[in-house]
Design brief:
- This protein has 12 helices and no strands.
- The protein is mainly α and 300 residues long.
- It has one domain.
- The longest helix is centred in the C-terminal third of the chain and has 28 residues.
């Protein structure tokens, strides 16, 4: 597909759909953590997703092979992907969906900063800097608000969970950066994803015993959720997201992911009855302002 220098209406529509899908994903992960230990769950999801991705590649006639000179980049992107989901799944086990989504989706801040220094054509303009500052302020507000006065009970607020969400966002930014700024850019998104899944399956399953018993209060619906995530979220969702990343500027694609906290807060409130106070609303307002500024078309 031909690369574009800005988000068009088609790209915006797809990005909004993915934002909603990934918000639903947060709710599913938190619920399924009741049955499976987070690191073990994340590793199983990577294993389960490899088959539908391989079938998709076979159907599209895409060869599954290791391109010369891409092994190092493949291992790095797999490690970044592993850290992203290890910390995300742990965050959703330790704190609420509302807090996790706002903090985790600070990813565009870290990606834009990395792109400014290392990716051609990704310089931070004054307008984009203002958007990044607003979005960062919203995330910082969410972390600083420790509950008790913003609608969240103190007992449901975990600083460790917040830090895990922040580290997960940095892992996601590293994954996106390597997809565009390393030898991985020479391979199709499906091959990139297979590297991520293969490496993360090994890493996450190897680390999982460190985090306690692998099985919790498991019920059959937890396994159904695991398979649905593997097929819909990982195989279809991430292939679509990586394809958009290969067409549109990475920082612009990433900035749309700030819509996911909006959906995540609403779903956490509606489905999980998580409290939403003035501080949460204020953080979302700052994030929304950042989206507007980061995606305004440059003049001239």
């Amino acid at each position: 597909m031909r690369r574009k220098d800005r988000i068009d209406p088609t790209g915006a529509g797809w990005l909004m759909a993915f934002a909603l899908l990934f918000a639903v994903n947060q709710v599913v992960i938190r619920w399924t953590n009741q049955g499976l230990q987070p690191a073990f769950y994340a590793g199983l999801r990577s294993v389960a997703a490899m088959l539908p991705v391989a079938l998709w590649m076979h159907w599209r006639g895409l060869p599954l092979r290791i391109e010369p000179g891409t092994v190092g980049a493949g291992l790095l992107i797999g490690l970044a992907f592993s850290s992203e989901f290890l910390f995300l799944f742990l965050a959703l086990d330790l704190t609420t969906v509302v807090r996790t989504t706002i903090i985790f989706y600070s990813m565009p801040v870290w990606l834009a900063l990395a792109g400014h220094f290392f990716l051609p054509g990704e310089r931070i303009t004054p307008l984009k800097a203002a958007g990044l500052a607003l979005a960062f302020a919203g995330v910082a507000w969410a972390i600083v608000n420790r509950g008790g006065g913003g609608g969240e009970p103190v007992g449901r607020v975990s600083l460790l969970g917040d830090l895990c969400a922040l580290l997960g966002s940095m892992g996601w930014a590293a994954t996106a950066f390597l997809a565009r700024g390393s030898a991985m850019k020479r391979v199709v998104p499906e091959v990139q994803l297979m590297w991520m899944l293969a490496v993360s399956a090994v890493v996450l399953l190897a680390l999982s015993p460190v985090f306690g018993p692998l099985i919790r209060d498991l019920v059959p619906l937890h396994l159904v959720a695991l398979l649905a995530q593997a097929v819909v979220v990982v195989a279809l969702g991430y292939i679509g997201w990586l394809r958009l990343l290969s067409v549109y500027p990475p920082s612009a694609v990433a900035s749309f992911s700030f819509l996911t906290p909006v959906f995540g807060v609403l779903l956490g409130w509606l489905l999980l009855r998580e409290p939403v106070g003035p501080a949460t609303v204020g953080a979302l307002v700052l994030v929304a302002g950042g989206i507007v500024l980061m995606n305004r078309a440059p003049r001239g």
